[in-house]
Queue: 2 jobs
Job 1
Amino acid sequence: MKRRSPSPRTLLAASIVALLVISQLPERFIGWVGWFRSPLMTIIAPASAPLSRLSSGLRPGEHLPRPDTPEGELERQRDEMALHLLRAEARILELEELIRDIQGGVPYQRAVGVLRVEAMRAGSSPAAGTIEVARGRTHGVVEGSVAVSRSGQQLVGIVTSVGASTSTVHLVTDRRLFPNLLEAVAIPEVAPTTAEQLAALPRMQLRPAGNGTLVSPEVGVNQAQRMQVGQRVRLDDNTWPSAAAMLVLGRITSIEPLDDPLFRRIIVTPEVDPSGLRSVILFIPSEGGGGR
Amino acid sequence: MNWIAFAIAAWVACGLEYGLKDAFRLGQTPVAPSFLLILGVFVCLWASPQALMAACLVVGLLLDFLYLQQVQGTERWLTVPGPHALGLLLGGYAVLNMRGLMFRRNALALAFLCLVAGALMHIVAWALLYLRGVWGEPVFGGVAGELGYRLGSAVYTGVVALVVGLILSVMRPIFGFPADTKRGFKMP
């Protein structure tokens, strides 16, 4: 007997029911669906990457100093040295804490190395607050890798999803970043030269405001008085991967009084627009385990 | 319908959707046009009912796979297939019913239908994702704000469709729609 194939109407009804059910299934049942996104992104990337570069040109996120000008090169070297110095000071503080922990019986964990890889932007999703970059699992990218701008060591975001050849970076300015409280330290024009000076600098807890800035809603007036508009603010947060330590979050653009005279509101604006970058540098933990 | 032409057009639309969305967004808001939606509605204007439903499912699924959903309060991201596909299916059905009343060759018709289909798609997608959040993982916090952004994007898509529609109308013969391939009655 000849077998009848299902009619288009039946197929459509079955598809609707299947999609309706799948869309409501809990995460543990639809986790496998995410696998299909990776090949899809690989197919789409050749079309989206050039357009994404065009998009960065139309709406530039950063103005790179021309490498052939001596000012630009000096500026880059100064930023690099400042980062190394601040990281070294932060490391001293961390090691002092580690010694105390070891003396208290806490087991020692080896530090993780960092691999730097440049990644071109391949797309963006403004609604999700993410950008897609053209480096993935095959290039060694892992979840928890840190994305940094090419100029000025601006923290761009953190890799939250890794495909075969593309990765998704959740931008630091997105309100849904988790955890969305960033411990930061305001660095004066003359960088601190000792770990003690670094430890004594004014600190704040920043959260993304949703308009491209970071806000510390309540900073004690004593701390706020030691901050100035224009000061650079750097990340000093243990919940972030060590590769993100002392990266730039932005500059203080406003110190506003509140109804309560004991507190001030600090607004920090990133030096580059993380969503408009043409490419980023990924800081990848070289021994895996770049968790937060 | 020429499905190879549709596949190439969908690939280009995906590139535009994911590559140019940031350049077109309104200020710092996520309100941005959807090029895939424009392609979907364009196909709905001209294709046979059977082909347009299949095209709507494909375009909707592409949207679902392109945009990850973040589980609120975590850094876990999900691919949720269905919300946009079902939404666009409803939008496509609305276009199918309305296209007879429209002057289809006019770019304004495409723009208006993009607005209608986009609004329907986003309402369905928003409702399904919200429902999912009720008993599962919530994927957005501000319920009204999310719907507002989505409807804003539908309006913006309609505006952009005015320009994109002109390009698509030039390319229409490549798609091999029934209206372009069927010849009128002719005396032997």
Job 2
Amino acid sequence: MSGRRDDEFTEYVTERMWWLRRLAYLLCQDWPRADDLVQAAITRLYTHWGRAAAVEHTDSYVRAILVREYLSERRSGWARRVSLTAEPPDSASVLGDREGALDLRAALAGLPPRQRATLVLRFYCDLNVDQAAQLLGCSAGTVKSQTAKGISALRRELQPPRAAEPPGPWPGNVPPGPDGMEVQPHG
Amino acid sequence: MDEAGVRALLARVADDPAPSSLVDVAAARQRGRRRMRRHRAALAAAPLAAAAAVALVLSGVIPASLGHGRDSRQPGPPAPRSRFNPVVPYAAFGWLPAGFTTAAGTGMGGTDQTSTLSATLTVGDRATGRMLTLTVYAAGACRSTGLLRDRMPVQHGRRTRFVTLTFKHGLSCRDGIGNTDEIPLPVPAAKVRGGTAFYLLGGGLAWEYARDSWAFLAPGTTVVGMTPVRAFQAAEGWDDAPARQAFPTTTESGATMELIAKVAGSVRYGARAPIVFPFQLAALPAGWAVSGVTYGVAYGLRVGTVNLAAGPASFPAALNVQVQEATEQKHCTGPPAGAQVVSVHGSAAYLYANPPRADPEEIYACHVAGLGFTIQLTRTLPGSHRPVPGLASLGGVLGVARGMRLLGPDRDAWTPHPVR
């Protein structure tokens, strides 16, 4: 019995690995972390395989596990202490094809986790508002507002930089200036 | 950027070349089986044993009550404030370690924001990527949770496992703009200027800076392309004791905690330099107020160019206003799908619903008198179809935009009063 269960599980996971890793990557923007996330999700999937295999849409079941693992990890103390960026914080932004792709990732990485998850569910997984709300455990209104805020933030982040010297043009892009007000002499 | 744009963006990012997979399906099966065996064993045992399988109760080290007294030999605490002015941050960093600046905090991705109940400030050290985030809550914004559970990852080499810890004490803190954060308080620390203090999980410190008023200071790191733990280990000069442990720790190494305690002890409280804004809104509807501001630090100023939220008590962030220096005209994006072109202060602006046919209503202008703006107005209360109280008098998002006074790109002309 266990052998058959294992075979089905392995076949499913192997076949869907490409999709799972990409979904995890979209959520956390970092390949090693994406693999960690998939690892945690499929371990959990194994323990619920009987139910997962029986439902009509196993992919939906697995997607829910993955997204909840991601959000759960983001709420934890470890995730709160470090913020990751896809780009060096001080690097200049130069538009070009490759650099443009980096901008896209940086813009996506700059969204709060729940907002990013909402956009991924709505526009990569093609879930409607109600489906996304059910998966995220929130109201449809929250999904709508998170979607709107996420799109708005992406639009701002992807706005081409002003050619002139700072100040920078858009939110979250405050230019580096002289030291701020509260800096005290060292020591 | 509209929905189609987001779809294209996600598809493009998802097409990034993937490195070889590190996912181990056999290990997942093995661990899954172990987990199932444990689960079955726990179910077969007494309920207490089942609980014990997932929870580690930390006990005996926490005082019976929080905020149980101050050291009378220390300088007196500030008077408790139950509400902050959201346009004048209530706290400021005092002493900082070498290399840390407030400008670097927001420049490195930190978020400085204020609300009626909290103020969050960041400082950073560009050379090493180290950051410190200070959050100060108004009196009464944090309440004791009693027993608090927190599920967290535990690092085993490259792998992460999760454990659920149960703490005897924690705080539930409201930030004044609709969010509540639950924070375990695992281990008492030395008092901070006479106030009760605790080490936080994952490093950092919580302390009662005034009666029923709590502050938190957390270290972090902004490092490129690494998992959090590896990033933390890699930050030069930042002690990495927790990352090497196989279990979540409550303290950094002694040197780092000493440094954090010193920064915490020098925090200054009270309304200080205000945020300045490049705009002024017309009077808000009765019952509405500014609820929060996200701002940047540049050129020695706190600049309210990131976001200002306002609304009634039932929905404090119904209105969101972002006004910044304008981009060059050639870099302006075109109208979003379904947008209506309207005139605001003699220039073109785009009026649309975002997402289409739904809340919030939004207006965007790229270049009006040297400034650009985005204003969002959500018309229904979250989770209901009831309209936001007081909405009628605003005249929609277009009314807000047309009633707004734009002060131009010269910072000397900006104002600390964002509402007329």
